[in-house]
Write a structure and sequence with these properties.
249 residues; alpha/beta; TIM Barrel; 11 helices; binds phosphoenolpyruvate
Length: 249
């Protein structure tokens, strides 16, 4: 039986007070053992997340990592640093990293591989732009993004990874993919993996991200191949984030 994962990507938002208040609220809310939760704070708040969430069922992770082990990479953060602060997960290939910071499919594959080597669970983000969807190229784009990573880490890499389908046109826009649109791409992703390894495909968690809210989460999570959500804006307020968690049937 699959377990829904509800993960909050805080992007570049927060302050010490906000992190404290948000995590306190998540921790004091009545628990739901049947849903996994994770948060992705900005790097400076990882120690605080670690101290507040240690011994709780809520996992935490980082929003990116550098593929190098250490060295002259000003402004970057390595896998071993994330591990020191107890991260379980790390996002790789978020569309904002791809579009605003020029991360290529190859960069993303390097980061994914480094995360795996270090013992982190990468959450690989893939998704098409509006233009690509309108040109009917969604599957081609998602396929290319996945192939870059499979080519580098193999299918085995996905034994300990999560995929997040995040159509770029739905991120932070208030425009959500319909459950049918999302399910179609999730089924495409699962079938792609299944054609190579049925067991890995069956176990793989595929999250949907793009303006998930309490009002649309139940319909999304009810779909066969949608195993949870990667939530941006609505993960910044405890009530909104908990409404998404509580939408899980
Ligand atoms: C995201 O940042 O990954 C995201 C999906 O954002 P939002 O939920 O705000 O669209």
């Amino acid at each position: 039986m699959r377990k829904i994962l509800v993960a909050g990507n805080w992007k570049m938002h927060g302050s010490t007070a906000m992190v404290q208040e948000l995590l306190d609220s998540l921790l004091t809310a009545p628990a739901r053992a049947e849903v996994d939760m994770a948060v992705f704070p900005p790097f400076p708040y990882l120690p605080l997340a670690q101290s507040l969430l240690a011994d709780s069922p809520i996992a935490w992770g980082a929003q990116n990592l550098n593929p190098a082990a250490q060295g002259a990479h000003t402004g970057e953060v390595s896998a071993s640093m994330l591990l020191e602060f107890g991260c379980r997960y790390v996002l790789v290939g978020h569309s904002e990293r791809r579009t605003l910071y020029g991360e290529t499919d190859e960069d993303v594959a390097d980061r994914f591989e480094r995360a795996l080597e270090a013992g982190l669970e990468p959450v690989l983000c893939v998704g098409e732009t509006l233009e690509e969807r309108e040109q009917d190229r969604t599957e081609e784009v998602v396929d290319r993004q996945l192939e870059a990573v499979i080519g580098r880490s193999g299918m085995a890499g996905f034994q300990r990874a999560v995929v997040a389908y995040e159509p770029v046109w739905a991120i932070g826009t208030g425009r959500t993919a319909s459950p049918e649109q999302a399910q179609a791409v999730h089924a495409f992703i699962r079938d792609k993996f299944a054609s190579r390894d049925g067991i890995i495909a069956g176990q793989l968690r595929i999250l949907y991200g793009g303006s998930v809210k309490g009002s649309n989460a139940a319909d999304l999570f009810a779909r066969e191949d949608i195993d949870g959500g990667l939530v941006g804006g609505a993960s910044l307020k405890a009530d909104d984030f908990l409404a998404i968690r509580d939408a899980v049937a």
